[in-house]
Amino acid sequence: MGVVTLLDRFYDSLLRPSLYAVSGGDAETVHRRTVTAMSLADRRPQLLAPLARLTRTDDPVTVGGVRFANRVGLAAGMDKDGHALSVWPALGFGFVEVGTVTRHPQPGNPRPRLFALPESDGVINRMGFNNAGADALAARLDRHRPAGTLGISLGKSKVTPLEDAVEDYRYSFGRLARHADYVAINVSSPNTPGLRELQDKDALRAIVSALQADGRALGRAVPIWVKVAPDLTDAALADLVGVCLDEQVAGIIATNTTLSRAGLAASERRYADEAGGLSGAPLRLRSLDVVRLVARESGGRIPIIGVGGLRTPEHALAMLDAGASLVQVYSALALHGPQVVPPMARALAGRA
Fold first, then answer.
1. Rounded to 5 degrees, what are φ and ψ at 64?
2. Cα(256)–Cα(324) distance, rounded to whole angstroms?
3. DSSP 8-state assignment for residue 110
4. What is the 8-class DSSP label of residue 75?
5. Cα dist from 46 to 38, 39, 40, 150, 339, whole Å
6. Counting runs of H as helices and runs of E as strands, what totals does the chain give?
7. Cα dist. 213→69, 178, 210, 257, 297 in Å?
8. CA–CA separation, 286 and 230 (whole Å)
């Protein structure tokens, strides 16, 4: 039995149940305590260096004008406010996406709003972009911007009307672009009312065009990635890809969470009526389909980050075979622990 399999069994059978037991069974409490614990190590390189030597996969690759240390990244949502940015690379990640962050600080939706579904190997969340705001993240990065490739995911503030969305994104971009190796435009979360309407081609074009212009005004062309929903029709996805081609975005992130409840285990069907986006294993096949569609519609001209239900090296390899250049992980990390990351990065090393 391999070391990774042993670690998986230890995490799934002992560590995860213990974390939930001491947190009253609340997934968000587990998440918060985990990030808080990691933040304590964030500025202690003497603790992180030995770990990094064990987990790191050096497989530098340039995609969309950005250099990544390897092809496996941390998806947005895990470290919204950038409290543990030095820790994630030490766990084997080749890049980190912080956020989603909004112009205005916001508490997010009422709790409970995060549900771990171990039998389905998935997570339902309706967090609602809870974060301290763009100014707070900018101040933190001014004080401590670790080395390594950093993406920053931007979302619309809940209090901002849709007609003012462009200026809302522009403000956050203006505060944070100088710290970002790339900026991801999140117009696809299901947890902010009306947000997915910004995937409409005219609305998306207005946002992308404004941020591209602002990037040029800063003196550097900040790579812009667009994160898409898995619930769009194929026709709507084709329109979105067309906008991204026209506006010369750096890449597309496929996908965000889904409103579908297909794939839930029978023992967890009681969660089907919970509002929010479903991630993890139930999303994987649809995310693969979206990656294939984006690759086809773009003729391979737009790089893709594939994300959705990736837990094993085989899952990550399937994403690259579908047309992705990079992958991201979130739910597998939350449900199974950081030992899932290095095997993925090693499996993807050297891929063209």
1. 60, 30
2. 15
3. P
4. P
5. 14, 14, 13, 22, 21
6. 13, 13
7. 28, 14, 5, 29, 25
8. 7
Can you tell me the distance from the alpha carbon of 136 to that of 116, in angstroms, rounded to the nearest whole number?
29
pTM: 0.93
Token representation of residue 343: 């095997």
Q: Where are the beta strands (DSSP E) in 42-93?
A: 61-63, 66-68, 72-74
Per-residue pLDDT tens listing for the chain (352 residues): 454 455 556 455 555 555 555 556 688 998 888 888 888 888 777 778 888 888 889 999 999 999 999 999 999 999 999 999 999 999 999 999 999 999 999 999 999 999 999 999 999 999 999 999 999 999 999 998 988 999 999 999 999 999 999 999 999 999 999 999 999 999 999 989 899 999 999 999 999 999 999 999 988 889 999 999 999 999 999 999 999 999 999 999 999 999 999 999 999 999 999 999 999 999 999 999 999 999 999 999 999 999 999 999 999 999 999 999 999 999 999 999 899 999 999 999 988 6
User: What tokens does 217 get?
Assistant: 């005004």
Residues 84, 39 contacting (CB under 8 angstroms): yes
Q: How many CB atoms lie within 10 A of CB 240?
A: 24
CA atoms of 69 and 63, how far apart (whole Å): 11
Paired with 123 in beta bridges are: 116, 279
231: its two tokens: 């619930």
Cα 281–282–284 angle (5° rounding)? Answer: 65
Among all residues, which ones are annotated catalytic?
A: 189
Give Cα 62 to chain centroid, integer Å. 19
284/195 Cα distance (integer angstroms): 23
